[in-house]
Amino acid sequence: MLVNAVILKKEKGKHASTGLKGFEPLICSSEGFERELGLYLKKISLKIESRRWLKNIERILRDFLASQKGGISKERTFNYLIKLKARDDVETFRKKAFQIRKFLRYLKIEWANEIEIPKMKHYSARKITIDDIRGLIEEMESRAYRGNKKIFRAIILLGASSGLRAEELYKLTKNDIDLENRAIYVRAGNSKTKRGRITFFSREAQEALRDYLKDVKGKPFLDISKHFRGSKIRIMDLRKFFSQEWDRRNGNYFAKRILMGHSLRDVDAGHYAFMDEGDLKKIYDEVMADLRILSRV
Question: Of 103, 107, 115, 295, which is most buried, counting CB atoms within 10 Å of its CB?
Fold first, then answer.
């Protein structure tokens, strides 16, 4: 009996250690694993828009398969999951265990459903304030850095006032930034959703960008993420601040979703999907153009 990459043989009157009724691993070639993993990744890639997340899933599954030398077995699988649980935080373990279980179900391994995923703990979104963002700028500018320290003020003010994802910030080129109109053009290939869009940034960010970009070539923020390690506020938190600050200022909910690149599947949002660049710019300017982090007028 062939269960995709795992060839199983039946033992009369016995239940093998795999937990599969009456079967035990006989052969499991690395070529078989590669074939099945490749097919599985192609299948889920049709639904997953983020290449980065697809790569994360591949890494999770390759690490799992590396622990299953001699064939996938129930005992080896649960031993591996126990090690993961001891090593990783709850959320990381949940993600890994969920992906492993999905893959085992794809392989039609019956005991896959015995893998229990820990329940999500109650999560309360962290409140991020203007003082927090100001503190981050002060922290980063006080650190030792061989390059142009103007980069910290530029990326932080841009991220906090535009709602860009961290990866979108890192992939920006100078041509994606329209300083005069305070606009950012997110290319489809650089977006998590693979859809291009436009967003805007504050006048304060405009000043910081103009000061920083005059001496920059290529991608202005490409290698900066590692320098934020250990900081209380991360680059990804700038997007959270933007969303929270927009709401604190009573900005239009659907316009915010468009600017941040969120889905507009619900009926009420359909109207806003047809807003042009000028309409969005007008709404943005009413809400965020005068956002001041370093000085409040």
Answer: 103
